[in-house]
Amino acid sequence: MARIVMKFGGTSMAGIERIRSVAARVKREVSAGNQVAVVVSAMAGETDRLVGFCREASSLYDAREYDVVVATGEQVTSGLLALALQSLGVPARSWLGWQLPIRTNDAHASARIEDIDTAALDAALSSGEVAVIPGFQGVSDNDRISTLGRGGSDTSAVAIAAAMKADRCDIYTDVDGVYTTDPRIVPRARKLKRVTYEEMLELASVGAKVLQTRSVGLAMKTGVRIQVLSSFDDPNNSATADTLPGTMIVGDDEIGDDMERQLITGIAHDKNEAKITLTSVPDKPGAVARIFSPLAAVNINVDMIIQNIAHSTGSTDVTFTVPQAELSRALDVLEKARADVGYETLVHDTKVAKVSVVGVGMRSHAGVASTMFTALADRGINIQAISTSEIKVSVLIEEDYTELAVRVLHTAYGLDAEEAA
Amino acid sequence: MARIVMKFGGTSMAGIERIRSVAARVKREVSAGNQVAVVVSAMAGETDRLVGFCREASSLYDAREYDVVVATGEQVTSGLLALALQSLGVPARSWLGWQLPIRTNDAHASARIEDIDTAALDAALSSGEVAVIPGFQGVSDNDRISTLGRGGSDTSAVAIAAAMKADRCDIYTDVDGVYTTDPRIVPRARKLKRVTYEEMLELASVGAKVLQTRSVGLAMKTGVRIQVLSSFDDPNNSATADTLPGTMIVGDDEIGDDMERQLITGIAHDKNEAKITLTSVPDKPGAVARIFSPLAAVNINVDMIIQNIAHSTGSTDVTFTVPQAELSRALDVLEKARADVGYETLVHDTKVAKVSVVGVGMRSHAGVASTMFTALADRGINIQAISTSEIKVSVLIEEDYTELAVRVLHTAYGLDAEEAA
């Protein structure tokens, strides 16, 4: 017997037929003798609808009332899943955020979970009842409904798994696991059996959107074992999730001895970056701070930064990337800072992409970056910027070369499977 | 300064534009110096949508989970109205059933309010904040969300008005008051300035669906003054509700001295009745009990009952009415009771209507019923059954004559206004 959390996203909850299919899947785990808590998202599209209402109702935006409205999406699906489970003969009840309670701080609309009281949950699970918990929501210190921000249901699931000391947190998604790269680009991408938290964090942060980054960070911190599985259920399949071929996300220690493991775990890409260059910035102390301080002040995340060596004129060019969604705000801020920074021209380019190779194996192996640079150079792909972390090397290239670069690197690091995925 | 409850139905909350218009109306009362609590329904159609989901999800129907799902409709509109009020500069917050709390019993899906804690509400209102409260919902003894049954928002409003000792409970509806009869049938129907609780109860129970019957009963018990007003707001109108021409629903004592008052307050009609006749029922003790006991056992309300005088054969015919919605269940029960009752044939007729004259003045005046019978006979309208209460006389007639009967009676009792309403 294991204690597991199962988390289902909005696509899995979109309509009664799908909710019934989720119920069947939960029943399999219960029938296998497991204690199960289920965390659910709102029906696909519902949160957008509710957010739209709030925006229309008020430009002032009181996040506490916003939370009252948007938390209803998950409340509906948790009640419906409890009903669907009952109709399959599985004892079940919904537990809303304020009922457990799931305590959060007062940062409404992007609250952080502070504490989960598991007394009621433990009692329910021990009695053989399935606990259905709306994701994304909690209750703040002043007893008002709070939400965790978009995509927060993954975080809810991991936090609940940690609090109830679950053996596993199974996240059911549109894909059936984490792949070495996007199979739509590289048909011979391989599904990974195991990936470390850190690798998953790097992959998520560079565009492999299987899990919300925050939930992976929480899992790493609390040691929750996450399994990524496909939500497309074969009704004739009687397998429980511990025998399904998903991807486990675990700590370094669990895969330390895996001799078969590749040096590189995966290749990720991200087309949502924009490149900004300031030319002829005075090459003197404080110049760079005057560029990035005003951006930080308005919460714009700057990613790859390159400062060229100074020209003979005593000035330099500074290039960096920001998310495309923040580009116009960033340009606005930089225009205003022109006199202060003293740059000559401000140019930007959205036709860029970031391609990254990720893997914990990198720590103990030299030469990973040079393999990357050589492979790209051999195909005539120009590198516009480079950034590295302990387990990742990213390059910025012209957007049109994205798929080519991903394929070239997938082959260069020996990740291609024998057959197409 | 007065303390008032304003209640808005689903039509008033159907979309952000309408919610904004409600907010403007609330603002007028606040600007006039009133302390205001607002009770809201779900957006028109939303509760039906949620009920549909529940029915699809489970035929077993756990009313506790049903309540979790359907209570979200009012949660959404209460958050949105709070936002809309804030954007007009009116301090406001939503108070969910579990937050006040509004305590109910455990009869989920048709719960009764047991207690409302007004400490938080008093503090909020005294600080000048508008309290927006979702109607229809509360929290049961075991801290689960409960709902009061369809149309429960009127009851919520009256219960909250009673608990907070409000000076008035203003119910905004699709009509602008209570009329002497349906103005679509009698254009010269007059709007009543005042009507007693008992009259309103009788009018509601015979088809004048302005207010939920239960809410009127509660208002009578607790002495809450209800005002029925139109929810169609003229944005250029700066009047507060105490000067608007709605209908006040009050106690007998408040209208006791009204010399201008008509003998009859109104004429109501109801086409949702069905007539059932059992022929040749043995005319002996206990026979009638054997008919009505099995109907009562399955909660079918029987209304008008006539037992004809016994035939020479020692048997009699028994006729009564049930709501049309219950007809097939009633026939089913009666078929099964055939041997026990010993009747000969079972016939039914849905082409009937009940027309009623209602008025507290009846108590002190004889001749009300005979005026009715004479007026109907003069136009050749046959009376199939009669029932009376202290302040009401109802007759069952052929459905096709309904509008004619209503017009004839409206004139016979001198209710016609000088001009069309």
Q: How do the strands and helices of this protein lay out in sequence?
A:
The structure is a homodimer.
Chain A: E1 3-8, H1 16-31, E2 35-40, H2 46-57, H3 63-70, H4 72-87, E3 92-94, E4 102-104, E5 113-116, H5 119-126, E6 130-134, E7 137-139, E8 145-147, H6 152-163, E9 168-173, E10 194-196, H7 197-205, H8 213-222, E11 226-230, E12 247-250, H9 252-255, E13 266-270, E14 273-282, H10 287-297, E15 305-307, E16 315-323, H11 327-336, H12 338-341, E17 346-349, E18 352-358, H13 368-378, E19 385-389, E20 392-398, H14 402-412
Parallel strand pairs in A: 1-2, 1-9, 2-6, 3-6, 9-11, 10-12
Antiparallel strand pairs in A: 4-5, 7-8, 11-12, 13-18, 14-16, 14-17, 15-16, 18-20, 19-20
Catalytic activity (chains A, B): L-aspartate + ATP = 4-phospho-L-aspartate + ADP
Enzyme class (chains A, B): transferase
GO molecular function (chains A, B): aspartate kinase activity; ATP binding
